[in-house]
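The methods section describes the discrete structure representation at length, but only in general terms. An entry of this sort, consisting of the sequence and the corresponding backbone structure tokens, reads as follows:
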Amino acid sequence: MNSTHTLPIFQRLQGRASAGVKHQTKAMKKNELLSIARPLGYRIDCLQGGLWITQDGDSRDTLLSAGEHHIADGRTRLIVQALEAGVVRIAARAT
């Protein structure tokens, strides 16, 4: 069973983008989940592996392969799942 984790760095990104924190890179295990609250404008880059991205209340899901990115266009919680082991970079929106 998978559990969803809101990583502290992503929480800090939301409040500190103007303080110089611009992005965080994370290695993810296969099926690992990340949760990002209030993701509007965040950029999710798939650096290695594959990602599945879904957002609460939005029927559009996004699949990313290495080298592709997604920019969140909603304010509701966003979930990122690693479809295989890989690396993701989350960049905070500009303030």
Residues 18 and 95 are 6 Å apart (CA to CA). The chain is about 10% helix and 50% strand. Helices lie at 8-16.
